[in-house]
Design a protein that fits this description.
- With about 300 residues, this protein is an alpha+beta fold.
- It has one domain (about 1-285): lpxc deacetylase, domain 1 (Ribosomal Protein S5, domain 2), CATH 3.30.230.20.
- The chain has seven helices and 19 strands.
- The chain has helices at about 80-90, 115-120, 185-190, 200-210, 240-250, 270-285, 295-300; strands spanning about 1-10, 15-20, 30-35, 40-45, 55, 60-65, 70-75, 75-80, 95-100, 125-135, 140-145, 145-150, 160-165, 175-180, 195-200, 220-225, 225-230, 255-260, 260-265.
- It has a five-stranded mixed sheet with strand order 2-3-9-4-5, covered by helices on one side. A five-stranded mixed sheet has the order 11-12-19-13-14, with helices on one face. Strands 1-10-18 form a three-stranded mixed sheet.
- α1 (about 80-90) packs across α2 (about 115-120), α1 packs across α5 and α5 (about 240-250) packs parallel to α6.
Length: about 300
Amino acid sequence: MRILGHRPQRTLRTTVEVSGTGFLTGEHVTLRLVPAPEDHGVIFHRTDLPGLPAIPAHVRHVTGTSRRTTLGHAPREVGLVEHVLSALGGMRVDNCLVEVDAPEAPGMDGSAGAFTEAIIRAGVLKQSGSRPIMGVDRMTCIRAGNATLTLHPATNTGLLLSYILDYGSLSPIPRQMHTMEHSPEAYHSELSWCRTFLLREEADALLQQGLGSRTTLADLLVFSRHGVEGNRLRFGNEPARHKMLDLIGDINLLGFDLAGHLVGCRSGHPLNVELGRQMVRQQVESSLDPPRLMPLQRFRRAA
């Protein structure tokens, strides 16, 4: 990893609140996004627990990646954070205190749209601190089975995202892809309202586990062999776009911006977080490298 540039850190202009039903608990959840000083990062506070325990939104605090991203350890944990983190990362809000009164963020409609609109209402403020933009010198690929997540070297300080969704010819979800240059404007218009999706058998299995008891077909996309049940797609490739939305949320756990071309194929939270862990390890290792000494001959000329 190497630093390719910097940009100004950003926070919210004012506090804003989002409320809704938790997908996991079925309880009413209130989440507040609060402005924070530079170099604060994103930190969750469980306001329903004694002492208001703080859980930093960093990859080293990830404790679960099964169908969602979870930070911290029970009972001081918070799950389903990826859509909140996606909205913050997508709109480039680097410093924010996230207050939540439950062990999960509100599910809303299964997208990051409500959080994104809340950020727009609050407004974004540039700060004096800088946030590094980092890239790799050579291609880095994480693989698990037939799923891959690959970061290609950067040609500038921007991030190009591509996602390929392909569950095979027998899947009710057709093969699809999406590519996007990352910017707050593109995130808002192309990704923020793309919803969580799952297969009918997956939905039934979650219900048998006691999860999602108050979630309806209007809250997310459930696919059967007949297509989407009780709902309509907002984009023809909405599932691929939602995967990209999740990816932006998970890479927001790095603490710095990525540059290059990030390509996901059938990947999800486990690979997203594993790539993040590798990037952070590489960042630490590169910062520990001894300084390169000027060649003796060149040094003498400079002297």
